[in-house]
TrEMBL record:
Its EC number is 3.2.1.22. Residues 46-272 form the Glycosyl hydrolase family 36 N-terminal domain. Keywords: Glycosidase, Hydrolase, Signal. CDD domains: GH36 (cd14791). GO terms for molecular function: alpha-galactosidase activity. The keyword Protease does not apply. Substrate binds at W189, D356, D357, R436, K470, W471, D472, S473, N474, C520, D542. This is Alpha-galactosidase. Residues 643-731 form the Glycosyl hydrolase family 36 C-terminal domain.
Length: 735
């Protein structure tokens, strides 16, 4: 029989007969504006067909009549929904059965779509290995209004023995275009989310993290793929993905000999073999997809809308203006100093005071970063009245109170490390390698998870007036290993750690749904939708220098909205970069995110104090537009020229805020001219310059009325030519 098939196949090739495959049915995933199609062929293989703008005509006819060439091994030249090992592509699934067979061959079983609610539908495509009772569910959650499709994989082991998973991705996307341009994000501490676009060439490009924690500090798990041309803001086809996972990840982009691009993304298989017991099921993290045929601006707006609704705590609530103590005092404070800061915060119109690192530890007082971490009892010498006393004090001043924690970590010089050395992540008897003088607690261990939840409980219950937690994590994992996991499950460490962390987040969130939690990991080291959904915002970077922040916020806001982007005004010269910048420039940059201050308020006196107080009030007026509006990027800081500009437009296009920055000297006679976007052509808008120095506006168009059409077609010009000039404009509809 086998011989016969082979002869028939060879004769097709030899005769030069065109060999084709046809589909007999198809599956569609759809949002208001997008479709994804999969074909089911006669032999029950499920193949990927299409992802893009929603087809309005009867696509069924087209899909069913499309014919595909066969490869030389008889398989159609359209990729399967989830490529497995056994083929020559980079597999999305690679596993070994108890009998040693290490290939997988998946076939269609059934599919089913349910409407979760008016906006969300869920489709499960169930596949089974041809020879083994091993099931793979490819699951899609379609968010209609936001045009987002979340994809993940579930695997069920129906065998009588353990299955060893060497690699299991969350998603696979094949594209067949003339050329592909990948935008990815890179950087390091204080320089997160730098953007890089490159044309993909034959071979494989990968982006990945292997640090367990701080995974997005150097490379983010979000990317965009522009088809046929480099990405533009308002034109061109872009596919984008972001993995909702805070641990090690890997995305590969393989350009094959047929000119097809195969994107496989999910948990990094690095040192992560998973043993799945008989009858057990595992679920992989979600890949959050979107697509735009009109540039990357729409990609960002899709993510922002979706994030505010589905991947951010309290995404529909206005964020307070924060004063964070870190750069103002570092570890050097006492009760008197903190109270003075709270008083000043109230005077500045600030709404939330956050006491950062250094408030705990008695046997080993946390006076620097070398000891005390893990001992979450208030330092009696520094703060004799306790945290509750300070929170109540702030409350009396009309301000909310927040506190810093780093619950996943421990200094070896701490009571916690003395009591529970077995809780520390370590590889057998190997020496511990410290980072920032600290170790990581083993979150695969349920006792450690309980400890963290109980500690959170203790801290929060010390006063009803604690309403904000800054949750930090300042080191990566090296020499991984767990005293809790058995020897044969040590390779589960990387995945179990993050699942342990998510379980902690989940318990904390369920118990304290109203508390504000900031996601911080030495700045933007944990910037992903997996963690963000338990938090209200992210501390985008420890670098508060406005020039650096223009780039960091630009990259961050490609995927994550301004409402979730902590952006603080700090002192000049900047502590991280030593750069000098005017207070106006610092505010103009920070006001494009969730505004805060990160300094000793007493350091601002005279005119600076007046300016800062006014700017805080101004921000309160514009923040509904910044926090809930649509982002339109007008000038990229990466373009030649030394300018950057962007704007936020509220949903009914009645109000907008424009930010423009210069960061090069442009010569005496050059000025910035640019077109606005996202407005209603027919509406009339009054333009008001904000954050002015003194009463006089330096902008000729201040207080003038323009139509949306003029602003978007003719544009405006501003005298933004000195090295650090900046402008903020408010546009308000005039009826
Ligand atoms: C790193 C954070 O990013 C900073 O904002 C600050 O909280 C320090 N840790 C405190 O140790």
């Amino acid at each position: 029989m086998r011989k016969c098939v082979l002869i028939t196949f060879l004769s097709f090739i030899l005769c030069g007969v065109e060999v084709c495959a046809k589909s007999i049915d198809f599956i569609t995933i759809e949002t208001a504006g997008l479709n994804m199609f999969f074909a089911i062929s006669e032999n029950k293989k499920v193949s990927f067909l299409y992802f893009g703008d929603r087809l309005v005509s009867d696509s069924r006819t087209t899909v069913l009549n499309k014919e595909y060439k066969l490869r030389r091994d008889g398989r159609p030249l359209i990729p399967e929904i989830f490529p497995t090992s056994g083929d020559f592509l980079d597999p999305a699934l690679q596993l070994t059965h108890a009998d040693g067979v290490f290939t997988t061959d998946l076939y269609y079983v059934e599919h089913n779509t349910i409407n979760v609610d008016d906006n969300v539908s869920e489709t499960i495509i169930r596949l089974k290995d041809k020879l083994y009772p091993l099931f793979v569910n490819v699951v899609f959650k379609a968010y209609k209004k936001e045009n987002i499709i979340a994809q993940y994989i579930e695997l069920e082991n129906g065998e009588n023995d353990i299955v060893k998973i060497e690699k299991i991705a969350s998603a696979y996307l094949p594209l067949h275009r003339k050329s592909y341009y990948l935008t990815h994000f890179y950087g390091g501490w204080g320089a997160e989310m730098k953007m890089k676009e490159e044309r993909l060439t034959p071979g494989t490009k990968s982006i990945e993290a292997r640090t367990g924690i701080l995974t997005t500090e150097s490379v983010n798990s979000s990317f965009m793929l522009s088809a046929d041309a480099p990405a533009q803001e308002g034109t061109g086809e872009i596919y984008a993905g972001s993995l909702a996972w805070s641990g090690n990840y890997k995305m590969t982009f393989e350009l094959d000999k047929y000119g097809m691009l195969h994107m496989v993304g999910g948990i990094n298989p690095y040192a992560s073999m998973l043993l799945i017991e008989p009858g057990k099921k595992i679920k992989m993290p979600e890949m959050i997809w979107t697509y735009s045929s009109c540039g990357r601006g729409q990609i960002s707006r899709n993510y922002h809308d979706w994030c505010r609704k589905y991947a951010l705590a309290h995404g529909n609530e206005i964020r307070p203006v924060v004063l964070n103590s870190w750069e103002g005092t570092y570890f050097k404070f006492d009760e008197k100093k903190v109270k003075r800061m709270i008083d000043a915060a109230a005077d500045f119109g600030i709404e939330m005071f956050v006491l950062d690192d250094g408030w705990f530890g008695n046997k080993y007082p946390r006076d620097d970063d070398r000891c005390g971490l893990g001992d979450w009892q208030v330092n009696k010498k520094k703060l004799p009245g306790g945290i509750g006393h300070l929170a109540d004090y702030a409350h009396k001043k009309g301000i909310k109170f927040g506190i810093w924690v780093e619950l996943e970590m421990v200094n070896p010089k701490s009571e916690l490390a003395e009591k529970h050395p077995e809780w520390i992540v370590r590889s057998g008897n190997r020496e511990l390698l410290l980072v920032r003088s600290q170790c990581v607690l083993d979150l695969t261990n349920p006792e450690v998870q309980d400890f963290i939840v109980e500690t959170f409980d203790d801290i929060v219950s010390s006063s009803p007036n604690i309403s904000y937690i800054k949750w930090d994590s300042n080191r990566f994992i090296n020499r991984a290993g767990s005293e809790y996991l058995p020897a044969d499950k040590q390779s589960h460490f990387w995945v179990d750690y993050i699942n342990g962390l998510y379980s902690v987040y989940d318990r904390v969130r369920k118990k304290y749904p109203h508390i504000t939690i900031q996601l911080c990991s030495s700045g933007g080291g944990r910037l992903d939708f997996g963690a963000l959904k338990y938090h209200d915002e992210v501390w985008a970077s420890d670098n508060t220098n406005p020039l650096s922040r223009i780039f960091i916020q630009y990259g961050t806001n490609m995927f994550f909205p301004a409402i979730a982007t902590g952006a603080h005004v700090s002192i000049s010269p900047n502590h991280q970069t030593k750069m000098h910048a005017s207070l106006k420039y610092r505010f103009d940059v920070a006001m494009a995110g969730r505004l805060g201050m990160e300094l000793q308020p007493e350091d601002l006196q005279g005119d600076e104090r007046i300016f800062a107080k006014n700017a805080v009030e101004t921000y309160k007026q514009i923040r509904p537009i910044v926090q809930f509006g649509d982002l339109y990027r007008l000038i990229s800081p990466y373009d030649e020229g030394g300018w950057a500009a962007s704007m936020y437009v509220d949903k009914d296009k009645k109000n907008a805020v424009v930010f423009a920055y210069s960061f090069e000297f442009h010569g005496r006679d050059r000025f910035l001219e640019f077109k606005l976007d996202g407005l209603d052509e027919k509406k009339k808008y009054k333009l008001t310059e904000l954050n002015r120095i003194g009463k006089k506006s330096s902008f000729w168009g201040n207080d003038k009325i323009f139509t949306g059409e003029e602003l978007m077609k003719m544009g405006i010009n501003v005298n933004d030519s000195a090295m650090f000039d900046s402008f903020v404009f408010m546009l308000t509809e005039v009826i």
